[in-house]
Amino acid sequence: MAAIPNSGKPKALIYTPAGRDALVAVSLVNEAGATSITAPDLPMFAALLDDDVAFGVLTEEAVRSGDLKPVAAWISAQPSWSDLPFIVLTTRGGGPERNPAAARLSEVLANVTFLERPFHATSFISIARTALRGRLRQYQARAQLEALGEGERRLQTALAAGRLGAWELELSSMRLSASDTCKAIFGRGPDQEFAYDDLIASIHPDDRGLVQASLDLTIEIGRDYSVEHRTIWPDGSLHWAEMHAQLYADRYGSAKKLVGVSSDTTARKTSEENLRRLNESLEERVRERTGEVHAAHQSLLEQVAQREKAEEQLRHAQKMEAIGQLTGGVAHDFNNLLMVVLGNLELLGKHVTGDPKATRLIDGALQGARRGAALTQRLLAFARRQDLQVKPVDLAELVSGMHDLLRRSVGSSVSIETVLAPALQPALADANQVELALLNLAVNARDAMPDGGALSISLREEQVAGDSGDLDDGTYLVLSLTDNGTGMDAETLKKAIDPFFSTKELGKGTGLGLSMIHGLAVQLNGALRLTSKLGVGTTAELWLPATERRPEQAAETDLSLAQTASRLRILLVDDDTLIAMSSVEMLEDLGHDVVEANSGSQALELVRSGGHFDLMITDYSMPGMTGAQLAQAVRAIRPALPIVLATGYADLPAGAEVNLPRLGKPYNQDQLSREIHKAITSETDLHLRSAS
User: 562-691 belongs to which CATH class?
Assistant: First the structure.
């Protein structure tokens, strides 16, 4: 059997058994841009014929006495797009005009070109390329027919899925062609006649004018035909039909036909009618029971509004919680890095005294690192994880004490007016964080008034009693700042507290200011409320819960005790090598002996082995065993051992109930010394009280 090449080129089927004809034909076919399939005999030639053959090559004498019926059968069975070309090589003077056998071949092969031998190679190549181009055009026609067929199948599928009936209306003769589904929509069976007159007769008399007017308008201006009307079926039942169509015109612009779809809308119209009747019934009942139903309706609307508001608050809380977890983790890692930088810079500063340039460079680096620490505080505030020192705070005193700082911050072009109501209760808040929030809001107001303006700062008490979704019932102190700056539109105001959203130029703001204040307010069980109008100004209100407790008097810290603490043997536990190294250096610089452990299990083993320690300082976030778990295990062995928990987080995870003094990262040597003194002193006082 002849081999079929797989080159991807068009294929030519060759049957030239005599002499060198086959070799010559194969060579010339390749020159023409096709590959060759050679058949050893005529039956095989007929068997190899298929739609993928581009053209055939035969010699007249090879088929003169052969059985051409299989070839003729294949040719007559070709699909409509196919007309396979043949090239027949004849002897000199052997053309169909003088050769009956050649004429017979012409009748059998249909699309045939005769080439008398001897011939020039270019003649064969030219004829072969012509045949090849013709065959390629046939392939294109096949592809187009297949695409049309696929489109038709998809159309029929879509029509069936949508229960749509197809129809066409020839406008010159008003001849209607309708599918079986279309006939069914008008109550007719597949075999029933359904002409245009039948269609018109089936339309409800009250709707015929509407249908005719829509048809006339479509023909007149060419717009799409779309109408819904009632139909009366042959059995007298009433139904609804919806008709849509497009107008097709000839090349001169004259309307030729409408092609469209129809659908049965009886079920929908019945539902609409039932709904309309139900609504009328409900309206009647509402009218009959207006002091009671109206009140219930209002109550329902309020419940829906409250539910929608609660859902919106939940979505916002979930979004803030998700981003808060991310930023809190970033702040934790950043605090660890700053711990190393600040600790090493502080120690290094002690070794360069007398070198002004080195001292200046170290001071600059310390300032930059402290700015980084301030940024982590913003991130923790946004994540609601900053370590808050919540105490009763006299907000009036706080605002008054910040007056000079606020004036310097907003500049001379902005005037500040302060209105503080007398005899206000203290607020339950973190004074330092409220100061930062107040300063941040004042700077925002300044930026909103680039040409200067007025800033009003006021303080008042408000009572909340079940009328606000974001605040519990009770008394609140409201710290309010109002500017007459550029203001915000509703869309900007809606996104104002979103993390990283800023209206300032790139590099002018982090977009965390209002997010930080919002996080702080929520963490303090209060709220941040913003109102603004474009071109008028903005009011920011920080609502903080009031307390009857009085502010504590600031106690003076005995620095000498912290600075002159006796030499201690300290167990330092941290899985971060850089942090551990920095902390060890600071402790040893304070005069203490330090034993370092890089995991909770290693530290626990040192305690179990009987080693003497005066104090343990442990990181909280460690793999395998957290600092809280380590502290619990150590306390079971050494109940009296003072323990300090160091952490870049402020709020420990739920369930980690540990009553230990905490040292927030990043910390400096002075903070470390103070915390050691407090831990030793507290533990000593505890044992003295227990002994007494």
Answer: alpha beta
